[in-house]
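Step 1: inspect the first sequence and its tokens.
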Amino acid sequence: MPWLEAALPARMTRVALVAPAELLRDMLVLVAGAAAVEIDRPDSGEDPDTEAARRLARAGSIGSSPAVCASRPDLDELERSGRHDLLAGEAQLQAYAAAAVRGSGSAALAGWMPAARREELARRLASLGCGVIPLPRPRTSEVPTLLDGSARRRSLSPLLATYGTVPYADIST
């Protein structure tokens, strides 16, 4: 791979993640496992007051690194057993679920993901009865930049930290 090609960011695409409302948590768990989508969060700056977030705050472990249970956990048991990592993960899932747009028995969230990974994620979500729908890029938003963790790209980290990333509009390929 030529050096310049290795330095280019991944092409990103705007998507909607859509699920039957009762499968929203399952979809979010699958999307989290894929680590492919940066889901939009509300601009309020505050996380919603969810049950898992309240329990996590009560435990005094707000900074726990989140982990996610494949199935809906018993929050009482997580709190008793000190599984603050799973409480933190559940708090994040509940926050995203609270931000979902709902209607006609379905729920949707918007976000950004690498274009090359959309079909793979769509296949995985289809097994749940959920989907990934491409969306047009909003005129007023900047496309996020994703650089993978390869050695070549990591070597550019000091440069990016100093000068920032180049907007997609400025890259002609």
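Step 2: inspect the second sequence and its tokens, then contrast the two.
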Amino acid sequence: MRLFIAIDLPDEVRNALAELMAELRQKCPEARWVRPEGMHLTLKFLGYVKDDDGGKQLASIRTALAAIRSTSAVDMRFRGVGFFPSAHRPRVVWCGIEASPNLAQLAADLDHVLEPLGFPPEKRAFIPHLTLARFNEARPSGKHARSASGREELVRAAEALAAREFGATRQTEFHLYESILKRSGAEYRKLETYTFAGEAA
């Protein structure tokens, strides 16, 4: 089983981002745009977890996740469009997230409870974002000049979207998901929901 931990998006944010991606897809159709219904904020990717040990590893993960607590809900505002690693070498197109400090603490807490189970903590700083699209190459050239032109147009469009907002949410739950790889793309199955704070306002 390939597992990850994530926070879901409210429908209004998902719908706003679906409209954005439809708009940007026209400028750069060769990018691999994600499906809006599968979008989520990943807190930690666990990777492959054994399911042939009588479910012991999965049970340990579930017990660890149930212990996570925060003093308040996580507030998030979705704003702007950018690129990893940079606009000059775009590999990933993302929507930015402005979040309350306890979101980063939540990710750190997940690292803390899962490390004893054999899941190494993240080495990179936690940067909350939503992946909108990916590219197979860092920068096409030559016969791929048309693709390069599409990327440049996409980068220009993103500059105009730096302050555009796509909604906000307050969340008190995260979810354990299974990622099922298929030829049509990854499908996600929610295994369990965990409440880490009181009811959202």
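Step 3: confirm your contrast with the notes below.
The domain at 2-195 is CATH 3.90.1140.10 (Cyclic Phosphodiesterase; Chain: A,). The radius of gyration is 18 Å.
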